[in-house]
Structure to design on (132 residues):
């Protein structure tokens, strides 16, 4: 699998395509195109990435669509906290040690789960299990 095409996608709030994506939109694109997993759009569930309460509500509402895994692998979703108590950020594992994600103030990037910046923020790893 070649993930290079995702690094050029600009951040776009509620974006769900190659022209622009937020963290969920990027995960949705990668799972669809690389792992043949079609996630729901969820495009109306939140209005800003800064409203952590609303993002937490969105994640909680869809939490049952995922099953926690203890040994992450490519295609699993990584759930993280960003600065508060709530887990409000996601990425997708592209190997057992590396994930790809995007944030409003950063470009699409890949990171190791062992990176000091991220390992303390990880809430867990999840596999999508709901049939669409």
């Amino acid at each position: 699998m070649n993930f290079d095409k995702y690094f050029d996608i600009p951040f776009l709030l509620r974006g769900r395509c190659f022209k622009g994506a937020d963290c969920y939109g990027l995960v949705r694109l990668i799972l669809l195109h690389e792992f043949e997993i079609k996630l729901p759009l969820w495009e109306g569930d939140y209005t800003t990435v800064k409203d952590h309460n609303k993002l937490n509500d969105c994640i909680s509402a869809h939490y049952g669509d995922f099953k926690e895994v203890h040994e992450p692998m490519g295609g699993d979703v990584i759930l993280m906290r960003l600065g508060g108590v709530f887990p409000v950020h996601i990425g997708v594992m592209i190997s057992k040690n590396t994930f790809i994600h995007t944030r409003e103030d950063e470009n699409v990037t890949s990171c190791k789960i062992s990176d000091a910046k991220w390992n303390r923020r990880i809430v867990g790893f999840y596999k999508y299990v709901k049939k669409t």
Q: What stands out?
A: The domain at 4-128 is CATH 3.90.1720.10 (endopeptidase fold (from Nostoc punctiforme)). The helical segments are 23-35, 52-62, 116-119.
